[in-house]
Amino acid sequence: MKASLNARTIIVALVVAGLLLLPVYTTLSGNVFGLTLFTRIIIYALAAASLNLIMGYGGMMSFGHAAYLGIGGYAVGILAHEGIGSGFIQWPVALAASALFALVIGALSLRTRGVYFIMITLAFAQMAYYVASGLARYGGDDGLTIYKRSDFGGLIDLSNRVQFYYLCLGCLFGGIYLIWRIVNSRFGMVVQGLRSNERRMQAIGFPVNRYKLVCFVIAGTICGLAGALLANNTDFVSPAAMYWTRSGDLMVMVILGGMGSLFGPVLGTIAFLLLEEALSQFTEYWALIMGPLLLLIVLFARGGIDGMLGRARRG
Amino acid sequence: MLLVVEQFLNGLQFGLLLFLLAAGLTLVFGIMDFVNLAHGSLYMMGAYFAATFVVWTGSFVLGCVLALGATLLLGILLEFVALRHLYGRDHLDHVLATFGLILFFNDAVRLIWGPAGLALPLPPWLTVPFQIMPGVYYPAYRLAIIVVALLVALLLYLVVMRTRIGMLIRAGASNREMIGALGINIKLLYTLVFGLGAALAGLAGLMQAPILTVQIGMGENILILAFVIIVIGGIGSIRGAFLAAIFVGMIDTLGRAFLPDLLRQILSSAAASTAAPALSSMLIYLLMAIVLVVRPEGLFPAGRR
Question: How far is B223 from chain A (nearest CA, A)?
Fold first, then answer.
């Protein structure tokens, strides 16, 4: 992270300032919708940033990342349904459940490479989807309504839109700071080395799979936090949150923003969800434009938004 | 006994249908090294084309033939306009681009045919039950699917193993650069293979259409199944795809049919009826996970590149 004044630094600074000041604007103008929209964007940006940690820095193309959104969400939803409303219990459980899931599927999936890895992570996420669909006690296919948001005592009131927005934003910045620290640590350097040349790293003597697994679990845990936030944001959690197209959305957000760039996923998520919102205002058939647009981005704009902002020191 | 035979045939029929879909996918993957998520969209387009053309022409067979041709052309067009520029790129680029195509096709279908599903009625001569054993009847149409799919599988085998084109396809699967260097028009071969894959997906879609409703998103669930099959079978291997498809079709169908009763033996009936559907949906993914853990390259890995 060189702090020189270039297009990237300016854009990132503007976006950060914009996100920080947004509630001021929406409160003054009474634009509740804008605040809800951006709360959603920020939560997805956190999920995308966690995916970027394994996909962009670690070279692990997980096609099942939405599973953690669902697991984090269901942890909150199920505990709330059973009468445990305290966020101090719900959220750690959400994180722990996501970490455990990541540990199990990571240990199995990381035995495979390339497309096989893409497919096996997809398969595990679909399994989670079907498990959630089968939870008849918790709504099954129809999903589970959360009647009361996580209760953090007097500390913070999640029902207050502005407070909730700043909580989400804090989680996003915290998540990105954590990822930044990880990427620039010795651990992060090893993981990025694995992306470049796994065989060489193994020859040097690093326990390759253990490093990858730890990275995979960290990313899953961060995404589980996004899941807990998302469930609180919509007061609802359903199997659809884990469906494979949702994992595809997350991948699109990361690639659109630029893989292996710290703020790329945030920019990508903002671009993707705002575009989706704008196009769906304009026409019911927004995907008719979005689909070919994605194709064009892949064909002509490699490196995503971050790539357009000039060459970066990757990682 | 009757039920067992019937479910067994259903499993075979579903498996063969999955094979048609997986064969195209594994060909495209094995030869062009291209991950095509939009394969399910071609399956859907085949079904929609069939539903339209059968009404237009008034003939089931003629409509299906036209639909097959239309899917073939659509596949070739798609390859020519967009996808050929993506060969040799990162797999992730393929995933993203074809994910965009799925979005596009779903909304295009919604725009053209409307959000409600279509039905493709069968002609009377295909609705009669067929006596396969004394006292055992099976729907003629499902039997027809089995026969057609087996014939196509045989044809595919003959084309790939016995003709010059097939030789090129196999050569392309084992070493792409080399057959290009030997002066083969590799671009034409790629377009041809993609068209073939699209036609196979369209065939699967149009044959499935009279059994299920023709609807948006019908290709997505089955696409994942097809991916599971080629991963289990070993990417690029048609033989692996065939065996894995039959296996997956059987497990899925038999699991759905008999798992609830089996679970009822051990669990309370209420618990069984909630657990069984989820468990039978999971069976295939569980199978794939086990296969990949034991043999990370699939059961029948194609020749190493």
Answer: 11
- Give a yes or no: residue A2 inside a domain: no
| Contacting residues of A for B102, CB less than 8 Å apart | 245, 291
Sign, CA torsion B106/B22/B189/A300: positive
Q: Is A278 exposed, middle or buried (0-12, 13-18, 19+ CB in 10 A)?
A: exposed
CATH classification at residue A301? 1.10.3470
E strand spans, B124-280: 129-133, 136-139
Query: Does the CB of A244 have a partner CB in chain B at under 8 Å?
Result: yes
**What are the C-alpha distances in Å from B104 to residues A165, B14, B41, B99?**
33, 27, 9, 9
CB atoms within 10 A of CB A49: 29
Residue whose tokens read 């390859």:
B79
Strand partners, A237: A144
Nearest to A291 among B101, B228, B275 (CB): B101
Sign of the C-alpha dihedral computed for residues A210, A214, A220 and A221 taken in this order: positive
Beta-strand pair B136-139/A236-237: unpaired
A209 in a structural domain: yes
Q: Assess if residue A75 is contained within a domain.
A: yes
Work out how many domains chain B is built from and give that number: 1
Number of domains composing chain A: 1
Give tens-digit pLDDT for A219-260.
999 999 999 999 999 999 999 889 888 998 999 899 888 888
Q: Is the interface score ipTM higher than 0.90? A: no
Residue with tokens 């679909």: A126
Distance CA B282, CA B221 (A): 13
**Per the structure block, which two tokens stand in for B250?**
């059987």
Q: State the CATH number of the domain containing residue B184.
A: 1.10.3470
- Residue A230 in any domain: the answer is yes
Q: What is the pLDDT of residue A1?
A: 47
Detail the DSSP E strand segments found in chain A.
Answer: 144-145, 236-237
- Decide if A10 touches B, using CB distance below 8 A: no
Contact A116 B298 (CB under 8 A): yes
Is A123 touching B (CB cutoff 8 A)? yes
Q: Does A113 touch chain B (CB under 8 A)?
A: yes
Domain around A142: 7-308
Phi and psi at B36, nearest 5°, equal -110, 95
